[in-house]
Specification:
Blueprint: E1 3-9, E2 13-15, H1 17-34, E3 41-47, H2 49-60, E4 68-72, E5 78-84, H3 86-95, H4 100-115, H5 123-139, E6 150-151
Parallel strand pairs: 1-3, 3-5
Antiparallel strand pairs: 2-6, 4-5
Helix pairs in contact: 1-4, 1-5, 3-4, 4-5
Length: 155
Amino acid sequence: GAMIEIIHKQSGVRSGRAGLNAFARRGAAEALAHLDLLEAGLTLMFCSVEEIHRLNREFLGEDHPTDVLSFPTEEQPYLGDLAVCLPYVARAAHAADRALDRETALMIVHGLLHLVGHDHDTAPRKKAMWKEQDTILARCASLALADNLDIRSME
């Protein structure tokens, strides 16, 4: 089956890490199943605001934090690495009045689609990516984050 490694690097998750990891693994697995990539591998790193800011600056030349970054590889079946900043995602979800579990699932699916070559740089490509995203998120509809999840707020 799929090899989905999850790591935390000052992720800001104070409690509920096991439940979060299970949620993330299931979400990624649903995406891979939909994409017929059942043997694929990826690493998902939950990291701090500082770390995602550093990665964004170093690799993309964007000097600000963000929600998710994708680092594809050419080493099939290994797809690459995702970095997700939960404090940033939680703040964005709250500001937009969206549920944290839906927002987190969206980030994982969005990042994973970038790993397999999707992009939203043109209107047709964006339309195709959003369609895939919606289909996969529908498969993840029953996934929920546990109530004990506690994420450090963004300063």
